[in-house]
């Protein structure tokens, strides 16, 4: 396979034909995909959350499905259902939309907790169990969930267990005035997603994911990650800090981030750059701190300031 960075940059450049002016956010989405993780996009309607998922799927040739979460959605509408066949007298499994390679869980917080929980096994164990039978999910597999942080009526907040299964949470935000004009120009005749071409195959994507695991992480950098995560648990404004899954997720994310930067090793600056994206949604702010307008972003920022960066040894000293 050619240089992983070149392949990954090709995907990123392709996605940017559709998602204009959001290079950093598109990069984070690609980092999540390369880590075999799941992504939570929290933002107002109309900023391109759905298009980001579709652009990633088309660029990588992955199968794509969309689940529109509503209060009346059932768990079997997500995972699939076993149907009795009169002719054979047997049950046949009809796969649900979660069985696609890239799944968009649109407005995930509009479904009931029972339906939301249908995602838990799929996101953590890459399988679904229906009527006692386990079905493996395809590889690669990624859930991209969206939610509107402004509208709370008729929504069910995601429980901590589900939030913890998302590797990253990002916010797209509004485009700049210049970028908004470019978006209008790009969509004047037709939407650029219709003309988007596949640039790598799903098999090449799996090779990229395998390459991420080979990026070297110095023991002192691992120690730094653990120190940051521990500091979120001990922070005075935190009701609940990040879990060990957060430590693992931050390490994996820094490996992919380093690979996209053309390096075969992780630096402490990678950890700092990704800390909020990976840990922010895992930190639950205490009620007393929330009254003082303290949020998870401030907690993670303070933790980064408080925890000393270790002196990283030379890579040869493993």
Describe this structure in words.
- This protein is of the alpha/beta class.
- Helix 2 crosses helix 11.
- It has 14 helices and eleven strands.
- It is globular.
- A hairpin with a 2-residue loop joins strand 6 and strand 7 (133-136).
Sheet with most strands: strand arrangement: 2-5-8-1-9
> What is the typical, i.e. mean, pLDDT?
91
Examine the coordinates and then state which fold CATH places here, giving the name of the CATH topology of the largest domain.
Answer: Rossmann fold
Overall geometric form? globular
Are there runs of 5+ residues with pLDDT below 50, and where?
312-318
Gyration radius, rounded = 20 Å
The level 1 CATH classification of the largest domain is: Alpha Beta
Secondary structure tally: strands: 11
- Oligomeric form: single chain
Tell me roughly what share of residues is in helical segments: 40-55%
Beta-strand content estimate: 15-25%
CATH superfamily of the largest domain: P-loop containing nucleotide triphosphate hydrolases
The number of distinct structural domains comes to 2
């Amino acid at each position: 396979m050619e240089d992983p960075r070149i392949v990954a940059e090709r995907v990123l450049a392709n996605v940017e034909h559709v998602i204009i002016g959001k290079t950093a956010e598109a990069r984070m989405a690609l980092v999540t995909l390369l880590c075999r993780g799941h992504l939570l996009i929290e933002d107002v309607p109309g900023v391109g959350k759905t298009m980001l998922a579709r652009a990633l799927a088309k660029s990588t040739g992955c199968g794509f499905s969309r689940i529109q979460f509503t209060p009346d959605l059932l768990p079997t509408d997500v995972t699939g259902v076993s149907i009795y066949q009169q002719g054979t007298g047997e049950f046949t499994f009809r796969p649900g939309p979660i069985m696609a390679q890239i799944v968009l869980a649109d407005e995930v917080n509009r479904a009931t907790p029972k339906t939301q929980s249908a995602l838990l096994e799929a996101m953590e164990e890459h399988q679904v169990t229906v009527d006692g039978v386990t079905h493996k999910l395809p590889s690669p597999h990624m859930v991209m969930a969206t939610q509107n942080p402004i509208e709370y009526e008729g929504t069910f907040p995601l429980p901590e267990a589900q939030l913890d299964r998302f590797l990253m949470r990002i916010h797209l935000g509004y485009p700049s005035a210049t970028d908004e004009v470019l978006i209008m120009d790009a969509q004047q005749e037709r939407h650029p997603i219709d003309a988007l071409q596949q640039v790598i195959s799903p098999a090449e994507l799996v090779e990229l994911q395998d390459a991420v695991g080979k990026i070297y992480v110095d023991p002192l950098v691992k120690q730094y990650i653990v120190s940051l995560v521990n500091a979120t648990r001990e922070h005075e404004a935190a009701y609940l800090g990040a879990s060990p899954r957060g430590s693992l997720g931050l390490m994996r994310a820094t490996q992919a981030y380093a690979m996209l930067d053309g390096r075969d090793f992780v630096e402490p600056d990678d950890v700092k750059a990704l800390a909020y994206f990976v840990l922010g949604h895992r930190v639950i702010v205490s009620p007393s701190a929330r009254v003082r307008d303290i949020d998870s972003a401030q907690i993670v920022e303070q933790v980064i300031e408080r925890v000393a960066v270790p002196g990283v040894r030379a890579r040869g000293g493993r």
